[in-house]
Amino acid sequence: MRILLIHANYLKYKVRDKTRIAEDIPKEMMKGSFKESLVVFTAIEKEDETNPEAIIKNAIEEIKKVFNKVNADKIVIYPYAHLSSSLSSPEMAKKILKEMEASLKSEGFNVSRAPFGWYKAFEISCKGHPLSELSRTIKTEPKTKELAEKELESKWFIIDKGKLINPKDFEFKNKNFKSLVDYELGSLESKGGEPPHVKLMKEKKLADYEPSADVGHLRWYPKGRLIRDLLADYVYMLVTAEGAMPVETPIMYDLGDEAIRVHAEKFGERQYRMKNKKELMLRYACCFGAFRILSDSFLTWKNLPARVYELSTYSFRLEKKGEVVGLKRLRGFTMPDLHTVCRDIGQALEEFEKQVEICLKTSEDFEVEYEVIFRATEDFYSNYKDWIHAIVDKIDKPTLLELLPERKHYWIAKMDFAAIDYLGRPIENPTVQIDVESGERFNITFLEEDGTDKNPIILHCSPTGSIERVICSLLEKTAIEMGERPPMLPVWLSPTQVRIIPVAERHIDYSMEIAEKMRDNIRVDVDDRTESVGKKIRDAAKEWIPYVIVIGDKEVEGSKLSVNIRKTSEKKTLNLEDFILMVKNEIEGMPFRPLTLPMRISERINF
Ligand SMILES: [Zn+2]
Question: What CATH superfamily is the domain 155-475?
C-alpha cells in the first residue's frame, strides 16, 4: 500500500463521473468538505492481497502516528490510484479502504472516506509545515518490535474463591465484571456513542466544555465546583486520618533533569511540553513533586512508613482528541495522589493492604460499585501468592489477574478499581501500586538501623481516582439506574440538600426563617419565585434535590413539616428539629461546605 499524508487546512471534493469499477454510494458521499484534516491519499497494491488484515493494521498504525503528531481534527481517507503502478483488484481495494475507515472509527477517530472508482474534482490546501506532507509504503509483514512485544504478552486469570480460572472458562454472574474482563482482554465490542454523563454534567450545571481552551479542559460552575471541593475535602480527610502529610508541588518540570526525563519517557508521548530556555513538561501526575521533596529530605527507618499527599489540581495528559470525552478522559484533571515511602517489601505489603481498604471505603461512601484487577509480574506472584489471594478474599468478589512475564513499568504489583459506565466500559478509578524503581531513580534514600543508606519502596495510591472520574461514575450510575430509582447524588454531595417551597408569597418569610435555622449544617435554599407549586416541585426533582418541604398556611401556623424524601420516594411528617436531625444523620462523618449560591432561587444566575 502506498499512502500520501497531507495535513490540510481544508479538502473539498465533488464526484463528476462513474468509472466501471465505482462503488455504489449514498448521496451524501457525492461531495465532501473537511477542515483541519489529515488527508490520506491511498493506493492499495497487488501484494496487499496476500494479507489484508496485516496491511490494514500497519496502515492504521502509521496514520495514527502521523495524526497524533500533527494534531489534526479528523482523518479523510481518499482513494488515489496514481500512487502505484501495481494496483490490487478493485474489490480488494474497496474492502481494505472500508475496513480502514471502520477500524479507525471504532477507535474513536473522526473519519471520513471519499468514494472509490469515481472521477472527482478536488481542491486541497496543504498546511506547509514540516510534517504536512509525508509519503509511506506500508508492508504486510509485522514489525520485529511487535513480535518482541507479543512474546511479552500478559497471562490472564480470574481469581475466584482461591482458584485461578481461565477467563474463557469462567461463568460470569456479574455483567459489569464481564465488561471489565472483555475490555482488558480486548474483546469488548465498542458500542460507541457519548456516555450519558456528558449530557448530565451540562444539564445539572456542573461543568461544560470550554471552547476557548484546548479540548479536554472544562469550566466548572458553582455547583460542580462545590462537589469538587467536597470530594477534595473527603480525600483529604481519609488520607490525613491515615497519617498522610499534605504538600503542594509545581505543575511543570525541567526535562533537563535526568530522573524526570527518564520517568517522563516511560510515560510515553501523551505529554504537554513547552520550550522557553528550558524544555519543560506539564506534570501528568504529582509523583515528581513528591519524589523531589523526599529526595531532599533526611529520612531514617524511624520515619517510615512516611506518607505524603497531594491533590494535583491540575495534572495534564495530551490524550488523543478522538478519545477525550466529558469527565471520563480529559487533558486537564485533578488526581488525589498519596505516596508512601516504605522501609522494605514487608512494610509495603502492610501499607498496600490498608490502602486497598481505603479504596473500598470510597466505593461505599460514593455508593458506586467497583470491579477489580490485580496486576503483577510473574515473579511477584510466585513470591507473594498467598498474600495476593488473602487480599482478593477480602474484596470478596471475583477479581481479574494480569500476570506480566517481566517488569515493564516502575511497579511490580498494582490493584486497579473500575466503575462501569452506562455503555459498559470501565471508568478507571482508584489504584494502589508498588514502585520499586523510583526510589533509586530519584535518589531517595533513608538511613537503615545498621547505619547504611537504602532506597525505599514507594507506594502510589489514588484512593478515588481523579475527582472528575468520581463525578463521572456518580452520574453514569444514575443513568444506569434510571427507572429503578430516582436519580440523585449522595446527599453529602448534593449541591442543594433541602429545598423549601413556599406555596404563596405570604409563606416566603416563614420559609426563610426555617431555612436560616438549618443553614449552618445543611445546604438549604428557598424557591421564592412566583411559579406554581407544581412547577417548583418539578424543578426541584430536575435538580435531584434530596429533601423537599412545601410550606403553606398550615405550616406557618405551626403544624409539622411535610417532607418529600427523594431516595425512598416517601413522604414524612416531622417537626423541624427531627427533620434537621434526620438530615444530619444521613450526612454524618462526611465533609460539609455551606451553599455557595444565593439562598433565594429568584436571585440566582442562570448559568
Ligand atoms: Zn505517583
Answer: Bira Bifunctional Protein; Domain 2 (3.30.930.10)
Q: What number of CA atoms fall less than 13 Å from residue 345's CA on the CB side? A: 9
**CA 457 to ligand 1 centroid distance, Å:** 12
The pLDDT value given to residue 181: 95
Q: Which three cell numbers stand for residue 541?
A: 426533582
CA–centroid distance, 433 to ligand 1, in Å, is 8
- What the block records as the C-alpha cell of 535 is 412547577
pLDDT computed for residue 145 by the predictor:
63
Ligand 1 centre distance from Cα of residue 506 (Å): 57
Say which residues have a Cβ less than 8 Å from residue 333's Cβ, sequence separation at least 6.
314, 315, 316, 317, 466, 467, 468, 469
pLDDT at position 131, please? 64
**pLDDT in the model for residue 400:** 97
Q: pLDDT, tens digit, for every residue of 423-459?
A: 999 999 999 999 999 999 999 999 999 999 999 999 9
* Confidence at residue 162, expressed as pLDDT on a 0 to 100 scale: 87
CA quadruple 107, 112, 116, 121: dihedral, nearest 10: -160
Instruction: Tell me the residue ranges of DSSP E strands in 250-370.
Output: 252-254, 273-275, 279-282, 299-300, 306-316, 332-342
Q: Are 255 and 279 in contact (CB under 8 A)?
A: yes
Residue 529: exposure state from Cβ atoms within 10 A (0-12, 13-18, ≥19) = middle
Q: Which amino acid is at 208?
A: D
Residue 536 · residue 530 · CB < 8 Å: no
Contact between residue 532 and residue 540 where contact means Cβ atoms under 8 Å apart:
no
**CATH for the stretch 2-147:** 3.50.80.10
Residue ranges in the chain whose pLDDT is less than 70: 129-131, 142-151, 190-191
Residue 291 CA, ligand 1 centroid: distance in Å: 9
What are the φ and ψ backbone dihedral angles of 346, each rounded to 5 degrees? -60, -50
In angstroms, the CA 548 to CA 541 distance is: 9
Cα 197 from Cα 420, distance rounded (Å): 12
Q: Spell out the residues 6+ positions from residue 542 whose beta carbon is closer than 8 angstroms to its own.
A: none
Helices (H), ranges, 309-431:
345-366, 378-383, 385-395
Which sequence spans correspond to the domains of the chain?
Answer: 2-147, 155-475, 491-603
Task: Indicate the CATH number for domain 491-603.
Answer: 3.40.50.800
**Using CA atoms, how far apart are residues 16 and 30, in angstroms rounded to an integer?**
9
Q: How far does residue 338's CA lie from ligand 1's centre (Å)?
A: 7
Neighbours of ion ligand 1 (CB under 5 A): 287, 460
pLDDT for 146 equals: 63
Amino acid at 245: M
600 burial type by CB count under 10 A (0-12 exposed, 13-18 middle, 19+ buried): middle
> Distance of CA 451 to CAs 300, 347, 446, 454, 566, Å?
9, 19, 10, 9, 62
CA 77, 80, 86, 89 torsion: positive or negative? positive
